[in-house]
Design brief:
The complex is a heterodimer of chains A (464) and B (560).
Chain A lengths: L8 E3 L5 E3 L8 H4 L6 E7 L15 E2 L2 H4 L14 E5 L16 H9 L5 E2 L2 E2 L4 H9 L7 E5 L12 E3 L2 E2 L6 H8 L7 H26 L6 H13 L15 H8 L9 H20 L5 E6 L17 H5 L13 H24 L12 E7 L14 E4 L10 E4 L21 H10 L28
Parallel strand pairs in A: 3-11, 3-12, 5-14, 8-11
Antiparallel strand pairs in A: 1-2, 4-14, 5-13, 6-7, 9-10, 12-13
Chain B lengths: L5 H8 L44 E3 L2 H12 L29 H20 L1 H7 L9 H13 L6 H14 L5 H18 L1 H4 E3 L3 E5 L2 E4 L1 H12 L6 H8 L6 H12 L4 H12 L23 H17 L4 H6 L2 E4 L1 H7 L12 E4 L12 H6 L8 H12 L24 H8 L3 H15 L13 E2 L2 E2 L4 E5 L2 E5 L2 H9 L2 H16 L8 H12 L5 H9 L2 H4 L1 E2 L6
Antiparallel strand pairs in B: 1-2, 3-4, 4-11, 5-6, 7-8, 9-10
Helix pairs in contact in B: 3-4, 3-7, 5-6, 5-7, 6-7, 9-10, 11-23, 12-13, 17-19, 21-22, 21-23
Chain lengths: 464, 560
Amino acid sequence: MKPASRRLFLRGAGGVALAVPWLESLSSARAATAAQKRFVVMFQSCGIDVTSFWPKGQPGRLSKDMLLGTGLAPLAGIEDKLLVLRGLHGAPRGHGKDVNVNDHQLGTCTRLTASSVSGGLADGISLDQAIAAQINPGKRPGLAAIVGKRGQGDSMYLSFTAPRKPTPTEPNPAKIYKDFAGLSAADPAVLARITKRRESILDVVRAQFTSLQASSRLSKSDRDKLDLHFTSLREVEGQLNATCALDASTSAQLDGIDATKLAADDWFERLSRLHLDVMSLAIACGHTHVATMMFGPGAHTNTFGWLGHKQEHHLLSHRLVSFGGPVLASASTLLAQIDAWHAQQFRYLVDRLNAYIDVDGTILDNSVVLWLNELSEGKEHHYRDLPFVIAGSGGGSLKQGAYMKLSQNPDPLALGNKTLVEDAPSNKLLTTLANVMGLRTPGGAPINQFGKFGPPGEYSEIKV
Amino acid sequence: MLFRSSRAIAIVCSAAVAACAPGAQTSRNPLPSEDDAGGKATPNAVGCPSRLVVKPRLQRLTHRQYRNTLRDLLGDETSAVGAMTLDPSLTRFSNNDETLFVPGPLARDYQRVAEAAGQKLMRDPMTRGKLVPCSPTEATCSAAFVRSFGAKAFRRPLTEPEQTSFEALFRAAQMDGTADEAFANGVSWVVQAMLMSPQFIYRSALQDISVGQNARLPEPYALASSLSYLLWNSMPDDELFEAARQGHLSARRDIEAQVRRMLSDPRADDVVGDFHAQFMATDAYLDLQRDPKLSKDFGADLGPAFDNEVQLFARHVFHKNLGFESLLTSTTTFANRRMAKLYGVPINAASDAEMVQVELDTNQRAGLLTQLGFLASHAHADATAPVLRGAFVLRNILCMQTPAPPADVDTTLPPLEAGMTTRDLIAKQTAAPACNGCHQLINPPGFAFEGFDGVGQRRTTDNGQPVNTQGSVSLEKGDVGFANALELIRGIAQSDEAKSCYGSAWLNYALARSLTSDDECAVQAVTDALKSKELPLVELLANIATSDAFLFHRDETEAP
């Protein structure tokens, strides 16, 4: 059933915030729909600075203090929307250092497929596209975007629509936007009714504030409280627009993209932001329920010049001044800056999705936003203790505000220790998320094992 | 862990609550009933009225109060509130007025909930019918609905301008459709607007009555809300509204009668559970990852059950007319099957999840501090944490201020060597004079719990060695030696420090603000009431709900 109330509507100047409101005059059956789930992946390349990335302290309830001073510091304030996982390792092998295949390629290709890799391609569908095949409108493939240099032989694929079929990954956000811009959301009469309801109600609410503010009995701090709340009402949904459209300034930036510069260092940051703007709008408008954003492919080689870096990312991850050259003493600090930059992008994406009101909660509440990486420690190409950070509960299915260790190894990275027990394969996370997103076998049963690598089963401890 | 000066040690050693002024130490009737000639309650003139404070006129509902209020207002147990933007956790209790404001995301939450409620009213004639006191075909029904629902949502009768404005909104909603749909639209819009109104989201006490002695009493409707949010964490019921309407909420005997009635209502359970969960900081019980070798029954998923144990146990103490001493020493508790295995007691439960009352061995357990959640949350993944357990006892149970270790000290513990217990390791690591100033106070009450492992099970050995749980703790009545945690707990349960600390925590919660030196007399009064013999929790709550500090506020128009 595709009820009218599931359509999406824009509101506010520039369409920054969207809403999925309900319509009074529609019959009860049509109005009573469960919220749509969404799945969003954000890929960071070349590992992390393992010394500074993770929350401080023991796994448990995630607090703001645990994030401050770490690579995840930009996420402070949304800790109650996060699930940070420790101890996961690549499946089937948790150590990297594969003598036959490039580790970056193996890590990138298997991270969402849990499948074997040959000739640079995974022999299985990736989780994002498996989900899209079941939930996306018109069974369209999930949106896939990339920014930066494509790297070694254009072969570092993360997303696959089928075995050995990499998802077309679009580097130009302007082209993605053209696919859905102006999508009509509903007939204008219906929109006008919703706008009228919200505006009429807000008018009365504002009048209530005004009369309360006029009371002489209020103290300064009472008044401050009320003023802040009144100001906050500006962020509340009122106006609705008829089309899915970016604001004029963002549209102009899309128009100004130089298509010959899509891989250039000095366009990287600007394009990243535009991709996230377009992607969150595409999700909020219902153009796609699945999206995958890659900040570079595996073994990414752009230079983060806007952070003052001189060495390209992959070289930095090996802590070298140049390949075959001396060790770069400041590499850890620079990698931590790259981690923080990615955390900022993740924060931006999450905030955007959280700004859209859904049938139940915000779009973020009904989403799983997964930030991952092909490696953990880049210098040695480790697949141990891989970074997986999740925002959103997938409609109340995943734990929130939690920092959880899924491995029993005291130190799941255990650099230099060959006796690590490989007890937390990342493929089981894919299986868990597949079921959270409602993926089912053709017979309608829950997924027992997503992909081919690793053991069957879920991490039930990360579910509510 | 270096002390910067000898003064720091003095801070560590002094209890937080200073002695009260001489006048206030006079024995006080816990339930004063003397009124002035005009029938208005007056402050008990025993030294404290000048300490009354100016209170906020507006207090935002906590998220818990908001949920309960929606449930009671809409008569709907299942109304979905969903996740609300969390308030900053700057204070011990989540109802502290300093932390309750409305940033943009929360304003959107309020709109989201209001729209969801409006949507449900549209499509659910049963729920709608409960709110509409008349037949929609009657011409006056919309006005009657606005009047009756408004008085509940705003917790006082609507003013005439409010009545007019909401009636106009009701009419604006009736655009088309059948008569039924049009009326349902009107109901839905009015409910949405009222749920977004500051008059709903804040408890307001704009009007009050001077009762002399620089003191003022809130007018009856505001007082009704004060009482219901203290005792129920929710809005007043019909009877309390009726008492306010008749003006029967200004004499002490009337107030006390309502307090007694409310404390015997099942809704009081919410507050008893909420307070004790926050008193024990059960937020920290969630998502505990512990060494699976300790027990196959322990798991991070038990967190909510541990929190539930605290709340069920506190309610049990409340209903059995028991008090603070029982909270610390009772051997009754509540457990599910896996928890019973951790406790090592038999259980008769119908399902894995069911929580049932169990009796623990009097030689093994005693109250809140030997419950699983406290012991497991004050531990590390692979070891007990005597320092955390000891610091909690000092800070949260005895209100002694222990500073955090200096920022430049590495508090990471080295691994446990063969033949060494956790106690040996901690003692060694904190033996340096710079550390020992604090740790001689913190460690002993922590070591007392070494008979419990990192998931709260009893143990007799640690790393192959027998555990040593002996020590002593310094209280006003003198040093209290103990052989184990049970002796420590029994010593504390009778101490003035612990009773004063517990009483001040309740005042902190009831007044919904941080305590200041103005509250010394109020703390002393509660402490006195707790001291004599075991004061039932229900009496403690009645005492606080009828106390000067709770009922009155200072007349800001007069000089203090």
